[in-house]
Design brief:
The complex is a heterotrimer of chains A (78), B (326) and C (739). Chain A has a domain at 8-25 and 46-70. A two-stranded antiparallel ribbon of chain A has the order 1-2. Chain A has 78 residues and is largely without helices or strands. Chain A starts with 19 loop residues before the first strand and ends in a 29-residue tail after the last strand. Chain A contains 1 helix and 2 strands. Chain B has 13 helices and 12 strands. In chain B, strands 4-5-8-6-7 form a 5-stranded antiparallel beta sheet. In chain B, strands 9-10-11-12 form a 4-stranded antiparallel beta sheet, sandwiched between helices. In chain B, a hairpin with a 2-residue loop joins strand 6 and strand 7. Chain C has 3 domains: 31-60 and 445-582, Aldehyde Oxidoreductase, domain 4; 62-144 and 206-282, Aldehyde Oxidoreductase, domain 4 (2-Layer Sandwich); 294-443 and 589-734, Aldehyde Oxidoreductase, domain 4, CATH 3.30.365. Chain C is 27% helix and 24% strand. In chain C, helix 7 (226-237) crosses helix 8 and helix 16 (626-646) packs across helix 18 (700-712). The chains are: A little secondary structure (78), B alpha+beta (326), C alpha+beta (739). Chains in contact: A-C, B-C. At the A-C interface, helix 1 of A face helix 7, helix 8 and helix 14 of C.
Chain lengths: 78, 326, 739
C-alpha cells in the first residue's frame, strides 16, 4: 500500500516553523504534467499559523514560507 | 436583536392605543419583511412591537369607482385582485416585481409603503450615517452606484417602495389615523425629502398609523410600470418608472410620470408630463419625455449610468402603457 | 439538462501531436485492480444515496447539530480596518444574562488588520444572549492608518501599514526574446484588465460544535478535511491528536475555504472547555464575507503581439492584485496559449481586508479571463475567427490537453457558425453574442485509505476518512464498491466524514475522486479476495478462480459454480471479513482540459447582460458517476456566471468597511439568472479517475465576457460586467471609442 507522504514543496520541517500551514499540506495531489508546461510559476498560497489560525503569527507579523524560517529571530518560531 | 415586548392588536383602535406616542421605541409589525431584518441588524431597537395584521386587509370599491386598499392587504392578493389587474396595471406590475414570492406572500401594502431605505450605509450598523443621527452621508464620496440622482441630499437614499411610485402616478391618497382623528394625504405629499425629514421618509407622525390607500377611479387610464433590475431573481431596481396616461386616440391628453429608485421619494416628473401632453405617443415622443424626465438629474460620483437606465425605464413604461411596441 | 456523448478517446482524436509529459497520463491497464472494461454502474447516472435525507431536511449538517446542554458562541470582531488593542475587558460580557464563558482571541497590544478581525468570543445559553454579550465586551482601540483598496496602497505617499512594505514584488518570469517577439508582430494590443474580489459564499457557513469529555474533544465541523482539522485542533490547543475526533456527516460547501478549525473553531473549543458544556459557533453571512476567505483580485497591464498570419509572437505583462492583509494574489498568466516570447512581473498588494484563501481553482479564473479577453482582441486584429485563432496558438494536443478537439466539437454543438463578427448588427436594444474560453487543471489525488467489511448477513460497510462536501463522494464510494462486488448501490453502507475512519486527505484541488476511488477499488477488491478464500471450499474451486457478479459469488471459469451473495456470506458464520487498504497508482491520473461557450443577450439601453446558454465540454478521466460529474459542471458554471456578472466584495473606499457583507447586495445568481446549461462530458476511461471540482468554473466568466463584447461591439475589460460598466463602456465608445 502506498502510504501518504507529505508533499509540500513550500514548507519543510527542516527549514520552517512547525506552526506554519497552508492548504497543500492537507491535500495529497499527484503532479499534473500540464502544470509547468502551460502555467508557468506563480504563487497564490494562503498561509496560516496554527497558533493564531490566521496569516499572522502570535507576534503580529506575517506568517508565510518566506519569513517563518529558522534563524529569523522571531520568538514564536518552533 | 434587542429583546422587546410583543402586543397583538385586533383592530385600528387597539393598534393606536398600543403604539402610543413613542414611535421608534414602539413599532408596528405587519408582514415583518422589512422590520425583522431591521431588528436583526440592530438598525431598529424598539422596546415593543405591536402586531397590526388585524388592520383592514380588504380591497373594496369606493362610491366614485375607485379602490380602497387596506394596509394589511398582502402583496400577493393585491397583485391578483381583478380590479387591480384590469384597471390599475401599473400597480399590479409594481406589486409583482416586489421581492420574491415568499416576500409577497407575507409582505403587506402598508409595510411596502413604510419600509425603510435599503441604502447600504444605513443598513450597516457600523456606519453612523446622517439618517441614523450621525454626522455625514457616507455615500457622497463613497460607494454611491445605487444612490439617488435626484433630491439634493443631504441624505442620498433612494425610496425603497415599489408601490409608492404607481400610487403617486395615480394621484392616490393614504388614510392616516391617530389620536387626533383621521386624515387623508395625497401620496405625492406623504413622502418627504431628507431636507424636510431626515430621520423618516414620510409625513406620518410618531403616533399615527397608515391604514388605507385610496386610489381614484381609473376611468380610461392606461398605466404601466417598467422596472430595470440587474438580476432577474430577487434584486432591487436600478431604476423604474410608473406612468398613468389619458389618451384620445393615440394623443396624450394627460400624463403622470413618476420615477422610482432615483430619489429619496417617488420622483414625479412634470417635465416629462409637459413634454407628452398633446403629443401622439410613439417611440420618438416617449424618448423625448424620457430625456425631459432626466434633464435635471444630478448624478453622484459613480451613478451617472442610472440616468440612462432611468430614461429607458420611462420610455418603456410609456410605450408599454400605450401598447406601442418599441 | 445535458446530453452526454460517451466518447472514448481514440487515435483520430489524440492525433499525432502528443505532448511529452512527465507522468503517464493514462492508467495502468495491468494493475491487478484495473477498472473493469465493461462498466455496469461506473459512468452511469446514479442518484445520490443521501439525496432523500437532504431534500427532506433530515440530513444533519454541523449547523444542525444539537447536543444536550449546548451553548451558542459568538465572536466580537474589529470594527476598524487597522487598530491596536489598548484595553480588553471581558467582565461586562460575563455579567450578561445566560453567559457561561468568555475568551480573548487577540491580545492587548496586538494589532487588528481588517474589519472583522477577531477580538474575543463568548458563549451563552441562547444565540441572542451570546450576540448581546459579545457587544458588551469592552475594548479600547488605538486607530491606525489603513489601506482600503489597491489604488490607495499603490500611492507613493501611502502609509506603511505592512511590515516590509505594502507591495511585494515577485520574480520576473521570462522566456524567449520580447524584443524579437514584438518585432515579429503585425499588430500589438495594449490594454489593462481586471477581476474583482469574490467570496466563497458557501451555503453552510464556517463553524463547528465542540464537546469535551474530560481531555477528549469531539468537534462537528463544517470542514473539507476531517483529518486535517483533527491535526489543526490538536496542534493549536496543544493536546494529543489521539484525543481529538472530528466529524463531518454532511457539509454545505467550502470551495477551498475550510481546511482547519480556523479561529472560530479554536475559540469554540476553548469556550466549551471553560463553560464545561458543548458550544456551537457558526459564523453568520457577514462574518463569512469579512473573515472567511476570498478569491484575490487581479489586474494586468498587457502588451501582446500577433503576426499577420495569426500566430502569437510576444506577451509582456505587469500584473498585481490583492489577497487582503499580507496575503498573496498570484495567478497564471498567460493562460494555456503559447506565446513564444514572454515576460511577466507580478506584485502582491496588501490592503486592510480579510485574507484570501484557496477558492475553487485558485488563480485560474483570473488568468483565464485576462488571457481569453486578450485572445479575442488579438483575433479581431487579424480578423480571424476566435476558435481558429485559438487552435493555431494552443499547445500540442495530448490526453490532458484536448482543447483543439473540444473547441471543434463544442463549436459544432453550440452553433458557433452562427456567430457574427464583433458587434451585433441587429437593430433594437437587445444585442446577442457568443464567446468561448479554455481551461486546464490537475485534479490528481493520492494517499486515501479505506476499510471494507463484509458481514455474515451479507451487509457491506465501507469506511473512509474522507468527507462529502456536497459533491456526491458518498455515492461515488457506493458506486465503486457495488461495481467491484457485483452488487447494487443500495447494498453498500458508506461511512465517511469522521477522523476515526482510515486516513484521507483534505478535499481540495479536485483530488477527492482520484484519491478516494482507487482506495475503494483496491480495498473492496482485497476484501472480495478474502471472501473468496473463505468460501472457496464451499464453492469447490480455488480462491483465485472466484469473482462476484450479478449478486453471486462464483467461479470465473465455470460461472455456474457459485453461491448467491447471501449464501456466500452465511458461510462466514460469526466472523466478518475486514480489510484495510489504500490508494495505489495506476487507477487515477492528473491533468484535465475543457472549453466553454457562452451566448448572451445585452440590453444596450440598460446595460444589463443576461446569459442565455452555456456549453461545457470537459473531461475528467474515467467518469465514476455521470450524474454527479455533471452536477459539478453545473455548480462550477453557476459560480462562473456569478463571477462574470454579479459578485463583488465592495469595500467602502473611505472606511475599508464592506458595504455588502450579505446576500442582498453581494449578488449570486438566482434560479432565473441561470442560463440553459449543456454539458458534454468526455469520458476517458483509459486514464483512470481525475477530479472535476474545479475546472468547470474556470472559463465561464471569460466566455461570458467575450460573448458580451461580441454582442455590443465594445470590450468591457473588467468583471463583474455590471450595468454601470457596460453603459460606461458604451458611452465611451459613442464619445470617440475605447479600442
Amino acid at each position: 500500500m502506498a502510504h501518504p507522504v507529505p508533499e509540500s514543496r513550500l514548507v519543510s520541517p527542516d527549514v520552517h516553523c512547525a506552526h506554519l500551514r497552508h492548504k497543500g499540506m492537507y491535500v495529497l495531489t499527484t503532479p499534473d504534467p500540464g502544470e509547468q508546461k502551460h502555467a508557468g510559476t506563480w504563487d497564490a498560497t494562503a498561509y496560516w499559523c496554527t497558533q493564531t489560525q490566521k496569516a499572522m503569527g502570535p507576534d503580529g507579523s506575517a506568517a508565510n514560507a518566506a519569513c517563518c524560517v529558522a534563524g529569523n529571530g522571531r520568538g514564536c518560531c518552533h | 436583536m434587542k429583546p422587546f415586548a410583543y402586543v397583538k392588536a385586533a383592530n385600528e383602535q387597539q393598534a393606536l392605543a398600543a403604539l402610543g406616542r413613542e414611535r421608534g421605541k414602539v413599532l408596528p409589525l405587519a408582514g415583518g419583511m422589512d422590520l425583522v431584518s431591521l431588528l436583526k441588524d440592530r438598525i431598529a431597537t424598539p422596546d415593543r412591537l405591536v402586531n397590526v395584521k388585524g388592520l383592514d386587509g380588504t380591497i373594496t370599491a369606493t362610491p366614485d369607482g375607485g379602490l380602497r386598499i387596506g394596509s394589511a392587504v398582502r402583496l400577493v392578493d393585491l397583485q391578483a385582485h381583478p380590479t387591480v389587474t384590469a384597471q390599475y396595471q401599473a400597480l399590479m406590475e409594481a406589486a409583482a416585481e416586489v421581492g420574491t414570492p415568499q416576500i409577497r406572500n407575507l409582505g403587506t401594502v402598508g409595510g411596502n409603503l413604510m419600509q425603510r431605505p435599503r441604502c447600504w450605509y444605513y443598513r450597516n450598523e457600523e456606519f453612523p450615517c446622517l439618517k441614523k443621527g450621525g454626522a455625514r452621508c457616507y455615500s457622497v464620496d463613497g460607494e454611491n452606484q445605487f444612490h439617488a440622482i435626484f433630491g439634493g441630499g443631504p441624505c442620498h437614499i433612494v425610496h425603497p417602495s415599489s408601490l409608492a411610485v404607481p400610487l403617486v402616478a395615480f394621484g392616490a391618497k393614504v388614510r392616516i389615523v391617530g389620536p387626533r382623528g383621521e386624515r387623508e394625504v395625497l401620496a405625492e405629499e406623504f413622502f418627504e425629502l431628507p431636507e424636510r425629514n431626515l430621520y423618516g421618509e414620510t409625513a406620518l407622525r410618531p403616533d399615527e398609523l397608515l391604514t388605507h390607500v385610496i386610489v381614484p377611479p381609473a376611468r380610461a387610464m392606461k398605466s404601466a410600470t417598467y422596472e430595470v433590475r440587474f438580476r432577474s431573481s430577487h434584486d432591487w431596481p436600478i431604476a423604474f418608472a410608473s406612468v398613468a396616461l389619458q389618451l384620445q386616440g393615440s394623443t396624450v391628453t394627460d400624463a403622470r410620470v413618476v420615477l422610482g429608485a432615483v430619489a429619496p421619494i417617488p420622483w414625479r416628473s412634470p417635465e416629462a408630463e409637459a413634454a407628452l401632453k398633446g403629443q401622439p405617443l410613439n417611440e420618438a415622443t416617449a424618448t423625448k419625455a424620457a430625456e425631459a424626465a432626466l434633464a435635471g438629474a444630478t448624478p453622484m460620483t459613480q451613478n451617472a449610468y442610472k440616468v440612462q437606465v432611468a430614461k429607458t425605464a420611462v420610455k418603456r413604461a410609456l410605450l408599454h402603457a400605450a401598447g406601442v411596441s418599441a | 439538462m445535458a446530453d452526454e456523448p460517451m466518447m472514448p478517446l481514440d487515435e483520430s482524436i489524440a492525433g499525432e501531436q502528443v505532448a511529452e509529459v512527465n507522468l503517464p497520463a493514462t492508467a495502468n491497464p495491468n494493475s491487478p485492480y484495473a477498472w473493469p472494461k465493461e462498466r455496469r454502474i461506473l459512468s452511469t447516472r446514479v442518484n445520490r444515496i443521501d439525496g432523500p435525507v437532504k431534500v427532506s431536511g433530515r440530513a444533519k449538517y454541523s449547523y444542525d447539530m444539537k447536543r444536550p446542554g449546548m451553548l451558542y458562541g459568538r465572536i466580537l470582531r474589529s470594527p476598524h480596518p487597522h487598530a491596536r488593542i489598548t484595553a480588553l475587558d471581558l467582565g461586562p460580557a460575563l455579567k450578561m444574562p445566560g453567559v457561561k464563558a468568555a475568551v480573548p482571541i487577540a491580545k492587548v497590544g496586538g494589532k487588528l488588520m481588517y474589519v472583522g478581525d477577531e477580538v474575543a468570543a463568548v458563549a451563552a445559553v441562547t444565540e441572542d444572549q451570546a450576540r448581546d454579550a459579545a457587544r458588551a465586551i469592552k475594548v479600547e482601540y488605538e486607530i491606525l492608518p489603513f489601506l482600503a483598496n489597491v489604488e490607495q496602497a499603490l500611492q507613493p505617499e501611502a502609509p506603511p501599514v505592512f511590515e516590509g512594505g505594502n507591495v511585494k514584488a515577485s520574480q520576473t518570469e521570462e522566456e524567449g526574446s520580447i524584443t524579437a517577439g514584438f518585432a515579429a508582430a503585425a499588430h500589438i494590443v495594449e490594454q489593462t484588465y481586471n477581476t474583482q474580489v469574490q467570496t466563497h459564499v458557501s451555503l453552510e457557513t464556517h463553524g463547528c460544535m465542540c464537546e469535551w469529555e474530560g481531555e477528549k474533544l469531539t468537534a462537528w465541523v463544517s470542514t473539507q478535511a476531517v483529518h486535517g482539522t483533527r491535526e489543526g485542533f490538536a496542534t493549536s490547543l496543544g493536546i494529543p491528536q489521539a484525543n481529538v475526533r472530528v466529524i463531518t456527516e454532511h457539509m454545505g460547501g467550502g470551495f477551498g475555504s475550510k481546511f482547519g478549525p480556523d479561529v472560530q473553531g479554536i475559540a469554540c473549543a476553548r469556550l466549551a472547555k471553560e463553560a464545561k458544556a458543548p458550544v456551537q459557533l457558526m459564523l453568520d453571512r457577514r462574518e463569512e464575507h469579512l473573515a472567511a476567505g476570498n478569491r484575490p483580485s487581479a489586474y494586468a497591464k498587457i502588451k501582446a503581439g500577433v503576426s499577420a498570419d495569426g500566430m502569437l509572437t510576444a506577451f509582456e505583462a505587469e500584473s498585481w492584485g490583492t489577497g487582503g492583509a499580507g496575503a498573496s494574489s498570484g495567478f497564471p498568466l498567460p493562460y494555456i496559449y503559447t506565446f513564444p516570447n514572454r515576460r511577466r512581473v507580478h506584485k502582491d498588494v496588501y490592503i486592510n481586508a480579510g485574507q484570501q484563501r484557496a477558492m475553487r481553482a485558485p488563480g485560474h479564473p483570473q488568468g483565464c479571463f485576462i488571457t481569453e479577453m486578450l485572445m479575442d482582441e488579438l483575433a479581431d486584429r487579424v480578423k480571424m475567427d476566435p476558435i481558429e485563432f485559438r487552435i493555431r496558438n494552443l499547445p500540442p494536443q495530448a490526453p490532458n490537453a484536448m482543447w483543439r478537439e473540444y473547441f471543434k466539437i463544442g463549436a459544432s454543438k453550440f452553433g458557433w457558425d452562427k456567430r457574427h463578427a464583433t458587434g451585433d448588427p441587429t437593430p433594437g436594444p437587445i444585442k446577442r453574442g457568443m464567446g468561448c474560453a479554455a481551461n486546464r487543471w490537475g485534479g490528481g489525488g493520492r494517499g486515501t485509505q479505506a476499510q471494507c467489511e463484509i458481514l455474515p448477513d451479507g451487509g457491506v460497510v465501507v469506511r473512509c476518512g474522507t468527507q462529502d462536501l456536497g459533491v456526491g463522494t458518498r455515492t461515488l464510494i457506493a458506486v465503486i464498491a457495488a461495481e467491484t462486488l457485483g452488487l447494487q448501490v443500495k447494498d453498500i453502507k458508506v461511512e465517511l466524514g469522521d477522523s476515526n475512519y482510515p486516513f484521507s486527505g483534505g478535499s481540495g484541488g479536485s483530488t477527492t475522486a482520484p484519491a478516494v476511488s482507487p482506495a475503494i477499488r483496491v480495498t473492496v477488491s482485497k476484501v472480495l479476495q478474502e471472501l473468496a478464500t473463505r468460501v472457496a471450499p464451499a464453492i469447490g474451486v480455488a480462491a483465485a478462480d472466484i469473482t462476484a457478479s450479478g449478486g453471486r459469488v462464483h467461479s470465473k471459469t465455470t460461472p455456474g459454480k457459485g453461491l448467491s451473495w447471501a449464501d456466500a456470506c452465511k458461510r462466514l458464520q460469526t466472523t466478518p471479513v475486514s480489510v484495510n487498504a489504500g490508494w495505489e497508482p495506476g487507477l487515477s491520473a492528473s491533468g484535465s482540459s475543457g472549453v466553454q461557450f457562452a451566448e448572451v443577450s445585452v440590453d444596450i439601453e440598460t446595460g444589463i447582460a443576461k446569459v442565455d446558454r452555456i456549453l461545457c465540454v470537459q473531461d475528467c478521466g474515467l467518469i465514476v458517476n455521470q450524474l454527479t460529474a455533471e452536477s459539478q459542471c453545473i455548480g462550477g458554471m453557476v459560480m462562473g456566471v456569478g463571477y462574470a456578472l454579479y459578485e463583488d466584495r465592495i469595500l467602502d473606499r473611505n472606511t475599508a468597511m464592506q458595504v455588502n457583507p450579505n446576500m442582498e447586495w453581494y449578488l449570486v445568481p438566482g434560479m432565473s439568472d441561470i442560463p440553459k446549461i449543456d454539458i458534454m462530458l468526455m469520458n476517458q476511461p483509459e486514464r483512470g479517475v481525475i477530479g472535476i471540482g474545479e475546472p468547470p468554473t474556470i472559463s465561464t466568466a471569460a466566455a461570458i465576457a467575450n460573448a458580451v463584447a461580441n454582442a455590443i461591439g465594445v470590450r468591457v475589460r473588467s468583471i463583474p460586467l455590471t450595468p454601470q460598466k457596460v453603459l460606461t463602456a458604451l458611452e465611451g465608445e459613442r464619445a470617440g471609442g475605447t479600442q
